[in-house]
Amino acid sequence: MLFCAQGRLLLGHPRRSLKHCHRCYSPSIHMSNTTPENPSAERLLEWESTLVKELQTLRFPSPVSFIYSPLEYAWPLHEEYVRRYYRPTARVLFVGMNPGPFGMVQSGIPFGDVVIVKEWLDIRGDLVFTALPERVHPKRPILGLHCPRREVSGQRFWGWARQGWHSSDRFFSWAFVYNYCPLAFLSSSGKNISLEQLREGNSKTELLRHCNRCLLYLVDDWKPLVIFGLGKFAYQMCDQVVGHLCPVYMLPHPSPANPKSGAYWSQWSAVANDIQKADASLLYTNTTFQENKYVQ
């Protein structure tokens, strides 16, 4: 028989973590106790870990039937993403809304299309199976980096980044990508429910309050030169919460639900032009970017 750290019997999936069961699992348990090489990244991970625990108690009315929390079951992947790519020298922040069913829901990484995560971000690993949600919609299984479906939003956003910077190391020396909310919401049919579609009430109010606080901590600590909200909702929340700390602009969300976003994000220059409209110096704030063949 196998037991978790708190003495509870582990049953079920043979690949489950042997350290923690779903009742005592917490992302903070997995955080390193060694002296951090990147204190900023460790602070962000601690804030996100706290955010996850704060959101665990919230219950949402219809149309929400399923809630996925990838920062619990995909924490090891997310932790590697933050520790490798959240760099104090970068000064541009892209903010998305919340996890997509074939992106961050699977990988724990914003817009985290699994092929991009493995091949361009060079992140690999397994899920914490004991932290998977107790209820999973049969049409939206959680398969981690083995998910066969692609995240269109992730293909478009990270495809744009790869087109302009070629390597993930160069891109993240210039920017970081963050999701405002770490939860994904599904209806009884498996349809994705956006934050805008959540019914007004105490749960939504508390959700936004906790997410606002984590965003404020991040921006106040990291001090980006500029923030780009991907889509109207992300832009509005960033402008409301941290607009007093730095300029906030909106870029079209790369979702397939936006009929114009495919052509827009497929052209590096189209997005770059909008970034330069916000601040002409942004694309030149990092010396490695000046070598980019796309910059004239």
TrEMBL record:
GO cellular component, alphabetical, reads: nucleus
GO BP annotations, alphabetical order = base-excision repair
- Report keywords, A-Z: DNA damage, DNA repair, DNA-binding, Hydrolase, Nucleus
Q: Which Pfam families match?
A: UDG (PF03167)
- Where the record annotates domain Uracil-DNA glycosylase-like, the positions are 85-259
| Subcellular location(s) of the protein | Nucleus
| Database matches in Gene3D superfamilies | Uracil-DNA glycosylase-like domain (3.40.470.10)
Keyword Disulfide bond present in the record's keywords: the answer is no
| Name of the featured protein | Uracil-DNA glycosylase-like domain-containing protein
